[in-house]
């Protein structure tokens, strides 16, 4: 099994996808630092109490918090994201400004790799009117990461579910259909982005689809 040496910072670690990322990293014995926004999130997220998981409180909108979080870190997996009820200003802060902060601090701290969870539809936001304002800002965040000069992988899942992981998934630069995918499988793809060299510099759109391999398959990012 391919291994990863060094510490991975998980941003958005208490969210539905982020906490699964923590679990998948832990299962692979990868060193984890998880940042959450508030102390109470530590008590309500069981994955953050796993042995060996280092936690800290901070905001992705605060550069000093990010500096503390990134000190000595080799890679970042970001699962931050806004919600449909957020104001336009809140969406912009989480989806765009935060990534500008993350990138600038990652460069300063010598981070070697970023894996980012985004969404299907960021290049065609008007096709999903009720999510368009979020998708436009997500695209700004994607561009900040892709243009940073840091090796990156941008993962764009379809609609997210809480189904068990282990389903077969389709993965491609462009998927010309909408589909669903479990958060468990999204988390595994984000972790595999650090383990498989072919993931670097790629945008990967993913949905559940029979006839393909699982999210932990070899050559996942060869497309």
Question: Could you characterize the architecture of this molecule?
Answer:
- The protein is α/β, with parallel strands linked by helices and about 220 residues long.
- The chain has a single domain, classed as 3-Layer(aba) Sandwich (Rossmann fold).
- It is built from six helices and ten strands, in the order βαβαβαβαβαββββαβ.
- An eight-stranded mixed β-sheet has the order 3-2-1-4-5-6-10-8, sandwiched between helices.
- β2, α2 and β3 form a beta-alpha-beta unit.
- α3 packs across α4 (about 90-110) and α4 (about 90-110) packs parallel to α5 (about 130-145).
- It is globular, with a radius of gyration of 16 Å.
- The mean pLDDT is about 95.
Strand content: 15-25%
CATH architecture: 3-Layer(aba) Sandwich
Average pLDDT: 96
List unreliable stretches of 5+ residues: none
Structural class designation = alpha/beta
Helical percentage: 25-40%
Radius of gyration: 16 Å
Query: N- to C-terminal separation?
Result: 21 Å
Give the total of domains.
Answer: 1
Widest β-sheet, arrangement of strands: 3-2-1-4-5-6-10-8
H-E order: EHEHEHEHEHEEEEHE
CATH class label? Alpha Beta
| Subunit arrangement of the protein | single chain
In total, the number of strands is: 10
Question: CATH H level: which superfamily?
Answer: NAD(P)-binding Rossmann-like Domain
Number of helices: 6
**Rough shape?**
globular
